[in-house]
Amino acid sequence: MLDWFANKWNQFVDYLYQIFTSAVEFLKDFLWWVLDMLFGAVVFLLDGLTSLFQGLNPLQYISAIPPETQYFMGVCGISTSMSSIVTALIIRMTLQLIPFVRLGS
After folding, report:
1. Which residues, at least 6 apart from 71, have a Cβ–Cβ distance to it below 8 Å?
2. CB neighbour class for 73 (10 Å; exposed up to 12, middle 13-18, buried from 19)
3. Is residue 96 a contact partner of residue 102, using CB atoms and an 8 Å limit?
4. Cys-Cys crosslink for 73: which of 38, 78, 80, 93, Cβ 3.0 to 4.6 Å?
């Protein structure tokens, strides 16, 4: 006599479980949509900033260095030291992005 009640109860539990999983999927999809819109806005803003850097040409400053100075910079190893410094700065900035790894700053 209670088989129909147990059957209906199991159907009701399955229905509630489907509603719960659908709500979780909706929240995940909503989060991804918000992140997509946020990243789209950031890309739009960064595309607008490219016009500010149109006049920046670092090669004109490097070519303005006299040949004698360029020779001594090459002999002293400025290119190697500058690449080491830039690599260290990139690693430091990358580590700053990781939470709980502030390394003295």
Report:
1. none
2. middle
3. yes
4. 78
Contact present, 103 and 95 (Cβ < 8 Å)? yes
pLDDT classification of 60: cutoffs 50, 70, 90:
confident
d(CA 31, CA 23): 12
Contact by Cβ (8 Å): 83, 92: no
* CA 47/CA 36 separation, integer angstroms: 16
- pLDDT tens readout for residues 62-76: 889 999 999 999 999
Domain ranges of the chain: 1-56, 57-105
Residue type, 93: M
Q: Tell me what the mean pLDDT of segment 86-105 comes to.
A: 80
Measured CA angle at 92 (ends 91, 98), to 5 deg: 95
pTM for this model (two decimals): 0.46
With beta carbons less than 8 A apart as the criterion, state whether 104 and 95 touch.
Answer: no
Q: Which two tokens stand for residue 90?
A: 């990139």
